[in-house]
Amino acid sequence: MIDKANLLGVDNNVFPHLSRRSFLSSALCLVATTACSSLNTKSSVQFIAINSLDELRHYASVDNVKVRLNPGVYTIEAAESHKFMSFTGKNSHYDLRDVTLRVDTKLFSLFGDPSGADGFYRVIDLSGENSVFEGLKVETFGDKPGYQSRNKIFNIVGSGITLKNVDVTTSGSTPWGYGSLYGIKGTVVRKMNGIRVGWPAVGVKVIGCKVHMRAMGHAIFVQGAIDTLIENCHVDGLVKTTNDLLAEKSGYAYDRHFKVPRQEYVEGVTVGKKGEILPNEIIALSEDGIRLYGDFRGHVTGSTTIRDSSVYQMRRGICTGLGAAADVVENCEATDCIAAGFNIGNKDRLINCRANAKYAEALSCPYEGSSFASVDLDILDSRNGLANNVLATINGDHHRIKLHTKNAAFVPSSMLIAIGTRRGYAFYQQGITAPTGLSLENKTAASVIYDS
Question: Which domain of life is it from (predicted)?
Fold first, then answer.
């Protein structure tokens, strides 16, 4: 019989307590551990340390590279196009942990009005494939608004891109402080959006990102992309009462005698029949927290998964209702939003989610043509709110909806669950009829009413 231990050059007198089989097993484990250690060391060495934005721009177009920008504060002072920094590399990894990037808002008007489908300004453009971009903190500064209304911090159009643990604070929109009252695009509005995932992107992951909206615009939104994952992200914005707005002695609304171009209802805010801003209302200063558009220039947005994420003080918290795709929202929370907490539509699923109804309905399912949505929603403390008595609005057919709360006192008995309705964010819907095939399990003190 062959002595396998001795083939390895082992002296049995040195290891008398080990059987040959045990020694061979230990030896193989040692070899494997050494090999793994070597691979890990090699992987670490692969990162190239760089010290400037110019070096980062160089590697932004390189495939199969790992780059780590040294920690510090960097400022973008110039740009060659409306894409301030464009990353086209494939299978690359850009590690910008502990890096802060400051961007002067004057850059958003340097090139006039860019043409084409992607003719909008953005700080970081990610159009490569299967690359990772992580750790950057981005801040805009300055008081010069952009040339157009479609400005963005991140624009992701490459497939297989992972955007991870970035922290974005937006500023630089106009007119600031009035939310959607004076429009959402076009003539006077200049927005500063956070993170866009757009066509032709497939399989993008936005993970662990934070967006602090201090400008008009959406925080995280998807347009025409397919199979997007948004996970462990947080969005926060600012709100203001119309009482505070009406007390202003100067500014955009003051100059217009506190009137807005639209009448009766503007994106969660009730206004007068002649557009008068009314007291005792509340406005979100930004737009939606996480929003899915139905399409981008005819390219339909595919199913999206939103998981373990939260939105605070935005217009709508999480909006998946605008397209036909069946989207999944799991373990997410929307609080103190002023048009809706969750705005859902066709075949969407809310699983183990939470929202309050202080300023708007926790659940908005307003679309007549939607069907087969599934909702499990825990209602958080909705007391001491303003300008709202609606807990949920439900239109469409064959939905299965469960509303419950951990504390019965969280939902005042004066609140309503409105079915077949144009209340709240359903204001824009026409020709509403009573839903068919609705399964509603209401474990709150709110009353159920049928408006049609």
Answer: Bacteria
